[in-house]
Automatic annotation (TrEMBL):
Region of interest: Disordered: 1-22
Pfam families in alphabetical order: cNMP_binding (PF00027), Pyr_redox_2 (PF07992)
Gene Ontology molecular function: oxidoreductase activity
Keywords: Flavoprotein, Oxidoreductase
Protein name: Thioredoxin reductase
The keyword NADP appears for this protein: no
Alphabetized InterPro entries for the sequence: cNMP-bd_dom, cNMP-bd_dom_sf, FAD/NAD-bd_sf, FAD/NAD-binding_dom, Ferredoxin-NADP_redctase_2, RmlC-like_jellyroll
Superkingdom classification of source: Bacteria
Secretion signal, residue range per the UniProt entry: none
Lineage start: Bacteria, Pseudomonadati, Pseudomonadota, Alphaproteobacteria, Hyphomicrobiales
Length: 559
């Protein structure tokens, strides 16, 4: 193994960012250094000077003119582990330079050094004014975060039973928000007991999160975890945004990218993590420009960085619970009581999978019943038999991905087949796979188990025949229920709860097909009545709606 200065095995794996030193820690050309220097100020620091520490917000950007800097990973016992040693013509930072979240690492001068320092606003101006440098910097910041995630560095430790609902809930939250972590499965790891004892906690308190320099979190709520890790940002109730985007799925992120890039003051509110329902897809293969496919999480991650690079703010782990649309600016209330004021609102809250009415269903949610099929879930069911319920593209993508990991996969659908609801390329692959069996005219009729799910029964609605299998994992991908409860009383909804827009909503203000019955409130993506439930169409709607927002903002008085 090649154990380099990054403390990770980087031998013969080109996908590892630490094996791509020239991209992850690039050296700027002298003329590029001059251009960057024009945006900052030159400083001299002595050996041992702390430039920034883990947990700080608004970290500055440093370009090394001479000397060197150590990037350090603080551990729980207060010690500092060197992650990287950066030298002349290199620069500091990772993705948190684009937002106001807490920084993940500490930087210290390894020797007397001469640096160029750019504060946050100067850094963002430089990134906008110097696009060739911005491309190099953005790629490096993304790769550094990918390296942290891949090697479990600069993050937290999660200790708990690998199949428990709360462990999976916390792991999903960290994974989908791109937060580095290392899982210690207390059911199988022989060292887990020692760690629990050393932390002086009861095993009944598992799962726990162990962040460096902070108290152990015993089975925290998702919102509490986000707050402690510094992922959330305080919102000034007196600030009025041009655009509030509610929901960070493909449609919402597209709206944020185009709105922010066109100079609109933009904020995005997201209840869980960027990506929405699409973010749980293991691979999207029919999205334009990605011939080999791209995971929903990767697509959302790139879009999130893109929006923040243009200046959009992203507030996660906060749900919109109501909106006062009786006067301008509109005021949206979040579940923690914070209020966001905006002249225009883009509703992009999407839809969620429906839940069947089954005994024991809630008992096994997260402990055998899943709504996403990513590498995390696939590892739970290696060489097992699993069930995918649903006949749409999400179900097909999940089936194809999981079939690479499992012993056999069953697709259960209520209809006669997949032709009416799934793309042809997925149907053909499913039909050719010897690891997948389709069960038409069928539905899950019973689930059972002890601590975890162990048995699944489905019934053929045409014949009445029941089949029971020793299955521990079900992937539920049926129907769509819109996330529109917070909008009731403000905009017109159809009988299923989706937002009516355009002619359907009787809009007259802008003539936009995405404007709702309330002027200045627009709906895009899966939450819109009559929308096409595809990632590409959601992205298209999110980008196009910004033109209508510009027209609307010109018509209203200055606020």
């Amino acid at each position: 193994m090649n154990q380099g200065e990054f403390g990770a095995d980087v031998s013969l794996d080109p996908s590892d960012p630490y094996a791509r030193r020239s991209q992850t820690f690039p050296r700027l050309e002298p003329e590029m250094m001059d251009r960057v220097s024009a945006f900052g100020s030159e400083i001299e620091v002595s050996k041992g000077t702390i430039l920034f520490s883990r947990g700080e917000r608004h970290t500055d950007f440093f370009l090394i003119k001479s000397g060197s800097i150590e990037i350090l990973d603080p551990s729980g016992d207060g010690s500092l582990r060197v992650l990287a040693h950066q030298g002349e013509r290199e620069f500091t930072g990772e993705l948190d330079l684009f937002n106001n979240r807490e920084n993940l690492v500490t930087a210290r001068a390894a020797e007397d050094s001469r640096l160029v320092r750019l504060d946050r606003s100067s850094f963002l101006r430089m990134m906008s004014a110097e696009p060739d440098i911005g491309e190099i910097v953005t790629r490096a910041l993304i790769l550094r975060r990918v390296g942290f995630i891949r090697h479990g560095q600069a993050g937290v430790v999660l200790i708990g039973p690998g199949h428990s609902a709360d462990t999976l809930r916390l792991q999903r939250f960290l994974t989908r928000n791109g937060y580095p972590h290392r899982l210690i499965d207390s059911d199988i790891d022989p060292h887990a007991g020692e760690m629990v004892a050393a932390l002086k906690i009861c095993a009944l308190s598992l799962p726990v999160i162990v962040p460096p320099g902070k108290s152990v979190l015993q089975n925290p709520a998702t919102q509490e975890l986000a707050d402690v890790l510094g992922l959330t940002e305080a919102i000034d109730p007196a600030e009025v945004y041009d655009v509030l985007v509610v929901g960070a799925g493909p449609a919402g992120l597209a709206a944020a990218v185009y709105a922010a890039s066109e100079g609109l003051k933009t904020i995005v509110i997201e209840g869980v993590a960027p990506g929405g329902q699409a973010g749980t897809s293991s691979k999207i293969e029919n999205y334009l420009g990605f011939p080999t496919g791209i995971s929903g999480q990767a697509l959302a991650g790139r879009a999130q960085v893109q929006a923040q690079k243009f200046g959009a703010r992203l507030a996660i782990s906060r749900m919109a619970v109501s909106v006062d649309c009786s006067e301008l600016p509109y005021r949206t209330v979040l579940d923690d009581g914070q209020k966001v004021s905006a002249k225009a609102i883009v509703v992009a809250t999407g839809a969620r999978y429906r839940k069947p009415d089954l005994p024991n269903y809630e008992r096994f949610e997260g402990q055998g019943i899943h709504y996403a099929a990513t590498a995390m879930e696939a590892q739970l069911c290696q060489q097992q038999e699993v069930v995918v319920v649903g006949g749409g593209n999400s179900a097909g993508q999940a089936a194809m991905f999981l079939s690479q990991w499992v012993r056999h996969l069953h697709i259960v659908v209520r209809g006669p087949g997949l032709k009416e609801t799934m793309s042809d390329y997925l149907i053909q692959r499913i039909e050719k796979s010897h690891r997948i069996t389709l069960h038409p005219y069928s539905e899950i009729s019973a689930i059972d188990g002890d601590r975890y799910l162990t048995s699944v029964t489905w019934t053929n609605r045409m014949t009445g025949k029941c089949e029971s299998w020793p299955i521990s994992n079900i992937f539920m991908m049926i129907g769509a229920a819109p996330n529109t409860e917070w909008l009731k009383g403000c905009v017109k909804l159809d009988k299923s709860g989706f937002v009516e827009t355009g002619i359907m909503a009787g809009t007259v203000t802008s003539g936009s097909p995405f404007e709702t019955s309330a002027p200045g409130i627009f709906a895009v993506g899966d939450v819109r009545s009559g929308s096409i439930k595809r990632v590409a169409s959601g992205v298209g709607e999110g980008s196009v709606v910004v033109q209508a927002i510009h027209q609307y903002l010109k018509q209203i008085p200055r606020l």
